[in-house]
Amino acid sequence: MDIINESKKRVAILPTNTKFSLNDLFTGIEWNNFEKKDRLLAGRNFLSLVENNTIPNVESSGKTSGNKQTYIKK
What we know:
This protein has helices at 3-12, 28-33, 36-51; strands at residues 19-20, 58-63, 69-73. The protein is an alpha+beta fold. The protein has a 3-stranded antiparallel β-sheet, covered by helices on one side.
């Protein structure tokens, strides 16, 4: 499973004004089945796509106290 493409599909069905992090889009089992290097790379790539407006209606909303990047579906 491609993390980025699957994330785009799952973001598209989120309700408006939903705050989420990348791993929130997956079940715990799904997320943990991805290799750590793939999760880290997906996190960087997803943020880059959001900042470049490649993923519509999603904005970066900073990081949590645990240093997890969060987003808001607009």
